[in-house]
Amino acid sequence: MEILRITNLTRYFGAVPALVEVSLELQQGEVLGIVGQRGAGKSTLLQLLSGAIAPSSGDIFLANEPVTLRDVPHAQRLGIVAVPQVPKFAENLNVLHNIFLSSEIPLPYCLRLLPDDRAMAHRGGELLRSFDLSPKLLEERIANLSDEQRQIIALARALCRPSRLLLLDDALSALSFARQQAFLERIKELAARGVALIMSSDDLKHIFAVTDRILVLYQGRPIALRRTAESTPREVVELIVGSNRQERVTPMIWAFENYYLAQQQAEELRRNQEELRQNLEKQDSLNRQLIERLQNQVEALDRLNVALQEASRRLITEREAERKALARELHDQVIQDLLSYNYQLEEVENSSVAEEQREELAKIRLGIRQVVGDLRDICSDLRPPTIDNHGLSAAIRSLASQWTEQTGIPVELKIDPALGRLPEPIELGVYRIIQEGLSNIRKHADATHVKLSLQRTSAASLVVQLSDNGRGMTQPLDLAQLTDQKHFGLVGISERVSLLGGTLNLTSMPHGGLKMEIEIPSPYPTVGA
Amino acid sequence: MFFKSLQKLLKENIREYGMYIALFVIMLIFTITTDGIFISSRNISNLLNQTGYIAVLAVGMTLVIVIRHIDLSVGFLAGFLGAIAAIALAFWNFPVYVVIPLVLALGVVAGLLTAFPIAQLKVPAFVASLAGWLIYRGALLLVTAGTGTIIIADETFNAIGNGFIPDIPGLENFLPGVHKLTLLLGVVAIALYVVSQFRDRRKKLSYNFETLPMNMFIAKLVFISVLLALITWVLAGYNGLSWTVVIVLLVVGIYHFVTTQTVLGRHIYAVGGNPEAAELSGISVKKITYVVFGSMGMLSALSGILFASRLRSATVTAGTLFEMDAIAAAYIGGVSAAGGVGNVMGSLIGALVTMSLTSGMNLMNIDIAYQYIVRGAVLLAAVIFDVTTRSRGR
């Protein structure tokens, strides 16, 4: 059945012909494509058919009845629905109201005066879902829509109206590739239901995918009306360009082909990008997991380290305590006992008659006194007696003079008078370090002069400097190697220093000798220091 | 918690509630400065009767401005049709039940005539209605030329602008001095309001639209109900509801329903939002223009009737500057000249604001010159407030 026939339809804008004498007829369920260059009159023809503008001359027949389309509402009442190239909306209404504007679903029994918003929301939601959009969009303001969404709303608006003739003026261009393909399928369905369609498009693939015939316009004039099945894109492009000269047609075909390809590639690219983004996210989360595990391990190590130091400190403290107890035991018990025996022997000696025996006894007593002296030395080695009573400086002075006595090497001593008393672990630790250092010098350095200084610095820490003019170090220090060689001197020093939270510095002097510098932070900074 | 959500509600809906707050503040100020005379039953009753003929014009003007037009001719059209009514009653001896429909019909015709050049020939509404302003002014002078002021003797007609609704008979001894029917109507109005609000809320919830939180919703209901009860009580203490108030409430109610609930109302706002888009959607913009101007003409006629009835006469200068008051009321009520925005309830409040200003300043014996300046300033402030809050809202 014939839906539309137009004869010699012409439209001038002023003196400019926009469309000249177009005639055609359209059957029910037929799809007509309109192609042409920009300004060829595609939109003008569609606007004339939609009632938006009136023809200068020519006639329009709808189902064999001559009609004069007064305006768009009139055309819509006759079943002609158009989707314009640039859709326009009432921006103050939401999407739902715009879709159904002027074709509201009325509430029953209300003389078509009252709208049935529930039914419209239902139908509108279905329409949006068919375009792969969320029904939530219905409540959105028009101003917040993207160009593609606006185009979709315009298509939905056309689809919810009863129509015999649907006019699509390049209405697919803003859609994504996938939605374009879906809508082309939809056009076929509409045609199968008996709706006649006229679509203009710059995309020849779309035209050749769905149309039955193609009308080519050139500068407002119809120059060809071809059956799609009997035509080729090349022929159509030749007609569009208005020339069959190779050098003009080929770039156009190229452009069309490339446009299509580019669109397809853009779609592919978008998908890839999406995939890449997801992969990146996955990778990212893996990295995060790894970092987290690493962090946990580092933390565990830290804890272990702290525990180890603590254990080592306890060991040293306990050792010191044991030494102290041992020294006291020796001093208070053994030495006293020996002295008491010595005294008894003296009494025996005095009361003895035999000169021989007296001499023997005197020898024994001498021996005992020597043992007592040795024991005293051991005691003071175990626990410097002066340190508990007189403090670090006195203890060190006594140590130094004792050492000089034993070795014959003079010690140049410089002790900060403002040293004061320090906590017992520090005093003891420093004392032991110096003891060890001096013993190292005696054993290895072969020195003739030793300098020792204890200073309080402005940073409220204790600095110990011990230097000699001996052999110095021939190779860099390797504590692990020293431990293997059972040389525990320096190892012990470094252990103690680290337990006191200090730093140890060993430097070989340029003119021979070694300088050991230890800095120990004091936990009790003196005021004004 | 409560005050926080109240604050949030006010902040988000300042455009909607702004003019209610403004009206409240203005009334409060005048009540204080006039030692309570302003809020007295007598004055409020008078104020509402005075507001009547501006309010109906403002309602019509709202729709005209919503579709991006303006109608300057309404003032003298009202005066002219009031004179026609007076002539029909006084000289032609038509019964009042014929005169009123006749004048309203004439008003519709006059509105359609104004609409013709606008819709058909695309003449700017300003010019077309300015021509109407001149023509109707001339027409008013013409019909009153021979007689001058026409006195209306018909008591039924005069009751429209001066009378009050009758009380329920047989209850004279119950609450003497209080208008029982007014109280009853007030209670009914409150009940209807509460029920409709609950229905509206349920409907919105069923569409998953945004609604007020429950405590705010209750607070709003209580506030409006108390306000309605107060107004009812104040009015019932004088003579009860006047016929003018009844008519205005009817007009506002009908127009509110039409604009918010019906297809026609939606089409009017669509045309205001984007005429071209509305046309392409299949709405006949011409038809909407005719409808809106026709309704404007009818409301002009109603305004003319109310004014003539109030003065018990038709005067040569009737209707002077009504159009300006109506336009000011609409703008104070939140209508936007850009089209598509504004509602009739707002315009009613706008009319109340302008009339409260006039009445209050009269009570305070403020010079008329300053009155105009103050009203101008209030109009400007209202529009500035509207424009700034809108640009922030979007």
List the helices and strands and how they pair.
The complex is a heterodimer of chains A (about 525) and B (about 400).
Chain A: E1 2-13, E2 16-27, E3 31-36, H1 42-50, E4 57-62, E5 65-67, H2 72-77, E6 80-83, H3 95-99, H4 117-130, H5 147-159, E7 165-169, H6 177-192, E8 196-200, H7 204-210, E9 213-218, E10 221-227, H8 233-241, H9 246-351, H10 355-382, H11 385-390, H12 392-407, E11 411-415, H13 424-445, E12 450-456, E13 461-468, H14 479-484, H15 488-499, E14 503-508, E15 514-521
Parallel strand pairs in A: 3-8, 3-9, 6-7, 7-8, 11-12
Antiparallel strand pairs in A: 1-2, 1-4, 4-5, 9-10, 12-13, 13-15, 14-15
Helix pairs in contact in A: 8-9, 9-10, 12-13, 13-15
Chain B: H1 2-12, H2 14-33, H3 41-66, H4 74-90, H5 96-121, H6 125-143, E1 150-151, H7 155-162, H8 180-206, H9 214-236, H10 243-261, H11 263-273, H12 275-281, H13 285-311, E2 313-314, H14 322-332, H15 344-363, H16 368-393
Antiparallel strand pairs in B: 1-2
Helix pairs in contact in B: 2-15, 3-10, 3-13, 3-14, 3-15, 4-5, 4-6, 4-13, 5-6, 5-13, 7-13, 8-9, 10-11, 11-12, 14-15, 14-16, 15-16
Offer a quick outline of the entry.
The complex is a heterodimer of chains A (529) and B (394). In chain A, 52% of the residues lie in helices and 19% in strands. Chain A has 529 residues and is an alpha/beta fold.
Characterise this structure.
The complex is a heterodimer of chains A (529) and B (394). Helices cover 52% and strands 19% of the residues of chain A. Chain A has 529 residues and is α/β, with parallel strands linked by helices. In chain A, the strands form 3 sheets. In chain A, strands 6-7-8-3-9-10 form a 6-stranded mixed beta sheet, sandwiched between helices. The N and C termini of chain A lie far apart (111 Å). Mean pLDDT of chain A is 84; it is low at 525-529. Chain B has 16 helices and 2 strands. In chain B, helix 3 crosses helix 14. The longest helix of chain B has 27 residues, at 180-206. At the A-B interface, helix 2 and helix 4 of A face helix 11 and helix 12 of B.
